[in-house]
Amino acid sequence: MTSGAPRLTTPPHDAMGAMRSGGLVPLYSNPDPDDLYKVAEAIVEAGISVMEVTLRAPGVVEALSQLIVRVEAESLPLLVGAGTVLYAGDAEAAIEAGASFIFSPIVSPEVGALCQAGGVTWIPGCATPTEIHTAMNLGCSAIKLFPADTIGGSGFLRSVRSVFPTVEAIPSGGVIPEADVLEAWFRAGAVAVAIGSWLFPERAIVEDDWSEVRRRLTSAVSAIAVARERLEV
User: Fold this and answer.
1) What pLDDT does residue 13 have?
2) CA distance 104 to 86
3) How far apart are alpha carbons 78 and 18 in whole angstroms?
4) Which residues of the chain have pLDDT under 50?
5) In angstroms, rounded to a whole number, what is the distance separating the alpha carbons of residues 200 and 214?
6) Which member of 15, 62, 115, 190 lies 3.0 to 4.6 Å from 121 by CB, making a disulfide possible if both were Cys?
7) What is the DSSP code (8-state) at residue 174?
8) How many CB atoms lie under 10 A from the CB of residue 105?
């Protein structure tokens, strides 16, 4: 970082609480801060209070920083975090920008240490029991099961929770927001699911079809509600 001590952001339990409450972490990547803000508004309108901006293209970190400034200025009830954080430098930049949480597709001790020093929720990607064990020992806030659709689905999570009963997991990658699919994930122990391209199809963004984006977000939120209601029966 360029400014000395890490910038303290939202305490880890606040970000995790928001994820547990809504059950959905929408993830999106775009170097255009205006499009990011439009997505943020749609997410809030759907009743979700977290948004992951994935660092998958040049300029996204700067757009993330601008988004966070605007969200705070407009008092939008939204916690913004960074995703696809692979390296310590990316973590530093995201924390400096004010990210409330960090998602990674891997387990990086360096990224984890930076998040803990900055008071930022750290959710590393895990696909094996060894990675889960390592991440928990490093003090992660939760784990990201990735890629969720190819490592065994909800059955994998159900199995590993017999060994790691306290682990909080958020599956990401190929998660379909249908009630039956979501019920299986939540029943297996997921605290939330992360979904990207299904919620924000490229064509809808390019054509400024924000009604379609809102429809998909609302549909996903409704499916989560149905899935959770079934667990209570």
Assistant:
1) 59
2) 6
3) 9
4) 1-10
5) 9
6) 15
7) S
8) 19
